[in-house]
Design a protein that fits this description.
This protein is of the alpha+beta class. Among the domains are: about 30 residues, no CATH class; about 160 residues, Lysozyme (Orthogonal Bundle), CATH 1.10.530.10; about 170 residues, Peptidoglycan recognition protein-like (Lysozyme-like, 3-Layer(aba) Sandwich), CATH 3.40.80. About 25% of the residues lie in helices and about 20% in strands. The chain has 15 helices and 26 strands.
């Protein structure tokens, strides 16, 4: 191009020469700032001979094209291409190592005392680009180049020469990092589904990226079989067919001294209705989580979802009771789903994980009739303590960086307005990317060090309609002291999708009832909702709230010790209202011995109402409240 322009200039004369010269020397039009990432993908695809839609599709399934402030994912992946660096990213531990909480959550049995306890793709990419790992972690453009170089290397090893996206299935499957062919194919299938349907979005750092739809693309799935991965036989699992799922059974085993682990045999839903699914993160990596789930002296949950590719492992049949929520009433009526990663130390979850988890949870919810709402699809951070003494030890995963809005979009139940303007109930619905509370302690709980700025599902409450006003107090966590901005402190925080009764409005602020107080939040973080609210019956100045819905003492048969109901240290006073999640039966699953024949479900006549009382749900006696529609 340069030589042809020079020749034209040489033969031009007078004004024509000047005009051509001026036109040639004029600077090229500047690239719009929000188009830089799109251009980076285009340039990297061309440089390494990777089809652009393949590069965009892989990146979308890893990071949704986000930069995430240069922080690692929950699987130690960095940047838009999720280049993994375990050496730099993480601490290996487990979710239950950070407190003295008993994950089983049953006073009738001695508390558990859990023992403390992938590829470096960034190095591979650095070697291909002749650069260093730090550059690939921190520079989005170079990160994209690194991912493109890896895809091209995987394609070279397969010996396939083609510019057609359909011929890159094997390279995409290899990029998943999966060790078995089914998981690799599931990852690749999701990438190609994304290519077929197309995507467009603005990233967390304001970049506009588009993957044009290519309907009808039919990849060569047989390429994945040439990667030398394990070919596992279809396992006996309870998973939808659209995910990769393996069986990693947890042992139900008798231990010395009459103890046993690490879950309970039951017969749900015949014995008890499953009405809740609890979302956790492992606070550790995949291999460690699976090792712990197979330890008879530890504890077990139902499923674990892997971050890098969305592979699911089932540990406990859904008919049985896992020890995961720290509240025996919740355990007995729930399914626990763990997600590889960290609530703070690694602060974003891959799209592969979100999609796989949503498919699993959607399948389970349909199978057991669990409503797709935030009163029934809850985080571990929403599970109440069983007694006042256990509140400080309750968990706060999956943390304020789990994108509940996106997750419910994937579940097919988007979080949106369901009530009229001015309704007496609201749903928490901030814009995830733009909502960036400045939490502290992501490096170490209680350090006071500000976390990196990033999108969050959490909205912080204040005592007045002013960001400078104090946070609310949580008597269970802090006594009479105020809550803090520590990333683990849920004492003055609400979560996306939760519903609360309105306590007032002023200017651009809305107040909600929260732990017996008025909590103020910006009105642009909520949408109108409809549903039921609970308020104390006339003549009752206050009513007790409980962390579990156990039967009255007279319901227990001989030989089974009645479980005490300990009121929480909160006040539900006349004039206050709280959103209702449902009316639930009083039940206690007595399962304190290894002998299943001794297990009994105790059912009482008392009924309870699940209310969204604070960040966590609580229960109130149905006889103490009036239920009425929000208006």
């Amino acid at each position: 191009m340069f030589h042809s322009v020079t020749r034209r200039l040489a033969v031009a004369g007078g004004a024509g020469l000047l005009a051509v010269a001026l036109a040639t020397s004029a600077p090229a039009q500047a690239q719009p700032a929000n188009q830089q990432r799109q251009q980076d993908f285009t340039s990297a695809a061309k440089e390494f001979g990777v089809p652009l839609d393949v590069l965009l599709g892989v990146s979308y399934l890893e990071s949704r094209w986000d930069y995430n402030a240069g922080t690692p994912s929950t699987a130690a992946g960095y940047g838009p291409m999720h280049l993994t660096d375990l050496r730099t990213a993480g601490v290996v531990t487990s979710e239950f190592d950070q407190s003295g909480e008993d994950p089983r959550g049953d006073d009738a049995r001695p508390a558990l005392h859990p023992k403390p306890t992938q590829q470096q793709t960034v190095d591979q990419a650095a070697a291909l680009l002749h650069t260093d790992a730090a550059t690939l972690r921190t520079d989005p453009k170079q990160n994209i180049r690194g991912g493109a170089a890896l895809l091209a290397e995987y394609q070279r090893k397969l010996g396939v020469r083609s510019e057609d996206a359909k011929d890159w299935y094997g390279a995409v499957a290899a990029y998943s990092g999966s060790e078995d062919v089914t998981a690799a194919q599931t990852f690749a299938d999701e990438v190609y589904a994304t290519i077929a349907g197309g995507e467009t979005r603005t990233t967390d750092d304001g970049q506009a990226v588009t993957l044009a739809a290519t309907p009808g693309v039919t990849p060569d799935r047989a390429q994945a079989e040439r990667l030398g991965l394990k070919a596992n036989a279809p396992p006996a699992t309870e998973c939808p067919k659209s995910v990769a799922c393996e069986s990693v059974p947890a042992p139900y085993q008798e231990l010395p001294g009459g103890d046993y682990g690490n879950h309970d045999i039951a017969n749900r839903p015949q014995s008890q209705k499953i009405d809740t699914i609890v979302i956790h993160d492992t606070e550790g990596y995949w291999d460690d989580a699976l090792t712990l789930a197979q330890d008879p002296t530890y504890l077990a949950w139902h499923y674990t979802v892997r971050s890098q590719d969305g592979l699911i492992a089932q540990h406990v049949p859904t008919k049985d009771v896992g020890w995961h929520a720290g509240n025996w009433y919740v355990n007995a009526k729930s399914i626990g789903v763990e997600h590889e990663g960290f609530a703070a130390q690694g602060t974003w979850y891959t799209e592969a994980m979100y999609r796989s988890s949503a498919k699993l949870v959607g399948y389970l919810a349909k199978r057991y009739g669990v409503p797709l709402d935030r009163a029934h699809i809850i985080g571990h951070d929403n599970v109440p303590g069983t007694t006042p003494a256990t509140i400080p030890g309750m968990h706060w995963d999956p943390g304020p960086y789990w994108d509940w809005s996106h997750y419910f979009d994937l579940l097919g139940a988007p979080i949106k307005a369901t009530g009229r303007a001015g309704s007496s109930m609201v749903t928490i619905a901030p814009k995830f990317a733009a909502n960036q509370p400045v939490f502290t302690g992501c490096d170490k709980i209680g350090s006071g060090t500000p976390c990196a700025a990033r999108g969050s599902e959490a909205v912080v409450l204040h005592t007045a309609p002013d960001t400078a006003s104090p946070l609310l107090s949580d008597a269970g966590l802090h006594g009479t002291g105020a809550s803090t901005m520590d990333v683990s402190d849920v004492g003055s925080r609400v979560a996306t999708g939760q519903q609360y009764a309105v306590a007032g409005r002023q200017g651009g602020w809305t107040a909600i009832w929260y732990l017996g107080q008025k909590g103020w939040l910006p009105s642009n973080t909520v949408v109108p909702a409809s549903g039921l609210v609970a308020t104390p019956k006339p003549g009752k100045p206050t009513i007790p709230v409980y962390g579990r819905a156990f039967p009255e003492a007279s319901a227990y048969p001989a030989g089974i010790t009645p479980q005490a109901l300990a009121p929480m240290p909160y006040t539900f006073a006349a004039g206050q209202t709280y959103s209702v999640g449902g009316v639930v039966p009083s039940e206690y699953y007595s399962a304190t011995t290894f002998d299943v024949s001794d297990h009994v479900v105790v059912r009482g006549k008392t009924k309870y109402v699940e209310v969204q009382f604070g960040h966590r749900v609580e229960y109130v006696n149905l006889d103490d409240v009036v239920l009425k529609p929000a208006f």
